[in-house]
Amino acid sequence: MTSTHAPRTARVRRPFALIATDLDGTLLRSDHTVGPRTRAALALATGRGARHVVVTGRSVAWTRPVLDALGYTGLAVCGQGGQVYDADAHRQLTSVTLDRALASEAVAKIEAEVGPLSLAADLAGLDGQVLTGPGYRHDPVGNLPVVPVGDRAGLWAAPVRKFYVQHRTLDEEQLAEAALRAAGHLVGVTKAGPGEVELLPRGLDKSTGLAFVARRLGLTGADTVAFGDMPNDAPMLAWAGHGVAMAGAHPELLAVADEVAPGNDADGVGIVLQRLYGTRP
Fold first, then answer.
1. Rounded distance, CA 92 to CA 217, Å?
2. 250-270 pLDDT, tens per residue?
3. CA 220, 222, 226, 230 torsion: positive or negative?
4. Contact 189, 159 (CB under 8 A)
5. Could you give the angle at the alpha carbon of 115 between the alpha carbons of 110 and 119, nearest 5°?
6. Taking Cα atoms as reference points, which of 214, 184, 198 lies closest to residue 80?
7. Residue 124, by phi and psi: left (phi above 0), alpha (psi -120 to 50) or beta?
8. pLDDT surpassing 60 at residue 46
9. What's the whole-model pTM score?
10. What is the pLDDT of residue 91?
11. Is 199 helix (H, G, I), strand (E, B) or coil?
């Protein structure tokens, strides 16, 4: 696919020293596992000196089981860029929280425009839980755990990284548009999955966390190939030297991608990596 943004060939360095992959809908198949072809391609690329960084909207607590299954010991960007996690040392290197007063004002402004919302709070901390408020419809991906609370006020009692927001009748496209219009000056708004919108600290996205990791490794966007499937991946793909959208990706991501790979269930990440890094004899 030809990207709609300006050509970036001049600032791309090959072979890529950094591989950044989203998890759900990208690295993970529909059964929440990493396919054998992708595993082999990642092993080949890292064996030839590339570094692999997981970049996900999931919190560390929701990401760790996947990292453990992969035997992953590097740095991971979690929480839409708000957490940089050292999987080997099991510690956070960065943690960005959302101002709850601003978030409360943002929710009130959105509700004034569209009516009642259902909320879930992603709590701060290395083992932060996700609390779901009254009426919130949790559609678990990979059996991700949540803790229901009966009183919405309980969602605001502790520091949070972000809020998940749902509406009874609006889909994520309509809700995101309304949220940006009503509260985009207060919080960041992103779409990471069907049926809900995330409210984040303004200016936070996956590219900010990934850029932090790249600097620690002595690398830049020009050294990076990035893979994703949803609008929250767009800043990361735009930052990277080469951005790869998965087949069936959201149109907003296709607009900034340099290439479209086969889908996650077809080991699309592995297919592209094999082309970039070669295959074993």
1. 16
2. 999 999 999 999 999 999 999
3. positive
4. no
5. 65
6. 198
7. beta
8. yes
9. 0.91
10. 93
11. strand
